[in-house]
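Final paragraph of the annual report: two paired records, presented back to back.
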Amino acid sequence: MTIRALMQVICHTCKKPIASRKDLVTAQYVFVVRPYHLKCYSERLKSFQTVFIKNYPINGPYGTAVAIISPVGAFLLGLFVAFISLRDPPPPFVIAIWVLIIVLGGGLPVLYRRIPRA
């Protein structure tokens, strides 16, 4: 298999390569970011929404706003947890929050591949 074949972004629904950025839509399913063709996304995923599957693409204005605001929120949450843990030994829920922040913050996948703009 060539490097070019490995670098292709494959649609999660139809399993075909996505040829241009204009056709790429990324959506979050639980904590996994999945790529879709614009057509596949609009046909299959926009018809329903749950807590885990959102009906808006991540690579749009909403996703950009979340990417800008999230580090600020994580920093403030970290300060809050650090302030609580300055008291006696930290309670178990503080330790659980720290573990959750570390696992989710470091483990979220990022989908970025070089796709032609055409």
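The closing record of the year follows.
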Amino acid sequence: MSLLNRNTFFVREHVGYFKAANAYDVLDPATGQIIGTVRETIPNLFIKLLKFTGLKTSLPFTVDIFDDDGKKLVTLKRGFTLFR
């Protein structure tokens, strides 16, 4: 079954110290198998450095969602915002 046709997911975050970009595994809750991945892309070094400041929630981001074969399914983007 395709990742986009499912109603329930389990999302596991990739943890690490001093990481600027977020990454997640999307798992089937019934089997625990990885059915997709989510990765944030940071456009440049300046934005990457700002991720470690209080401005993190206002910064632009791009998130790509991939199926288990590595095929990109969806890209989500948000620009810089002053309002949360």
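The mean pLDDT is 88. This concludes the annual technical report; the extension proposal builds directly on these records.
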